Automatic annotation (TrEMBL):
Any coiled-coil regions, as ranges: none
InterPro entries: Solute-binding_3/MltF_N
Taxonomic lineage of the native organism: Bacteria, Pseudomonadati, Pseudomonadota, Alphaproteobacteria, Hyphomicrobiales
Organism: Enterovirga rhinocerotis
Gene3D superfamilies, per database record: Periplasmic binding protein-like II
Keywords annotated in UniProt: Signal
Protein name: Amino acid ABC transporter substrate-binding protein (PAAT family)
């Protein structure tokens, strides 16, 4: 684990002023972008105690999703989810600890173990039994890669008897396809990269995953192509362990501000993540 302690308060205030975002005082008072006049926002001390009981904000980072988190040339963590975690820690005046994981499934499995306070995962009803999700901040498409000469042309073509599809175990694609596929079977690998290896080495019918990294694989490896269309659009959200209602409201409003202020859109452009799109505004349930 890597402790990251930074003070970005001045930069954060400057961004908020330039974008017309909420001031910290307005956010604390509950005047969030989407929570409405009747909502009551917990004060930062209350949020700090509830969200970060250890005195530091432990953010689970899934490095298996390169669209949102990756390691730089010197192994430094970088990406939109890390930027959001740093910004939130700064606002709450908390030290930040990044807790690395290599799959979304392992992040979810750790939710009940007290290993993290904040995470960045795709919204999924299975996970919602243990985790509270904010509204989405970005949306990501899921699709398939097949061999160049395969007869599959559309997403629906893969769901046929005998078809075998590689997928990362516990990933959003695994959860979704487990529910949706009627005839095809899934072959699960430990990570998304391992799923691609499984697909290639065992000559499976397809591999399912995030469109952006699959596009890179196709460009770098002859003999493969993307299937047109998508089998689902994943909504990436910030999430907390259950039973943290005051912290949840604060984080929900924080995410809406980051969307409305341009913070998320600027980060997507900075990291050249053209496959992800900014999610629309939302109100707290």
């Amino acid at each position: 684990m890597e402790d990251v302690r930074e003070d970005l308060r001045d930069a954060s205030a400057s961004r908020a002023r330039r974008a017309g975002g909420l001031t910290r005082r307005a956010l604390v008072a509950g005047l969030g972008w989407a929570c409405g006049a009747s909502a009551v926002q917990a004060s930062p001390p209350d949020v700090r105690r509830e969200l970060a009981p250890t005195g530091r904000l432990r953010a689970a980072i899934n490095f298996g999703n390169a669209m949102l988190a990756r390691r730089g040339p010197s192994e430094e963590p970088t990406g939109l989810s890390i930027d959001l975690a740093r910004e939130l820690a700064n606002r709450l005046d908390l030290p930040l600890e990044l807790v690395p994981f290599d799959t979304a499934g392992r992040v979810t499995a750790a939710a009940g173990l007290g290993l993290w306070d904040l995470a960045f995962l795709a919204i999924d009803p299975v996970r919602a039994s243990e985790i509270s999700f904010t509204a989405a901040y970005v949306m990501v498409e899921g699709t398939y890669v097949v061999a160049e000469g395969a007869n599959y042309r559309a997403v629906g073509d893969l769901d046929q008897l005998g078809a075998q599809i590689a997928v990362g175990r516990g990933s959003p694609w695994d959860l979704h396809l487990t529910r949706q596929l009627k005839l095809a079977s899934l072959r699960r690998a430990a990570t998304p990269d391992d799923a691609i290896k499984l697909f290639v080495e065992q000559k499976l019918d397809a591999v399912a995953g995030v469109k952006q990294p699959l596009s890179v694989f196709v460009k770098e490896n002859a003999g493969f192509r993307l299937i047109e269309g998508r089998f689902m659009a994943i909504e990436q959200a910030v999430c907390l362990p259950k039973s943290r209602p005051g912290a949840y409201r604060y984080v929900f409003d924080f995410v809406e501000e980051m969307k409305a202020s341009g913070f998320v859109a600027e980060a997507l452009a900075r990291y050249k993540q053209s496959e992800a799109v900014l999610a629309p505004p939302a109100s707290i349930p």
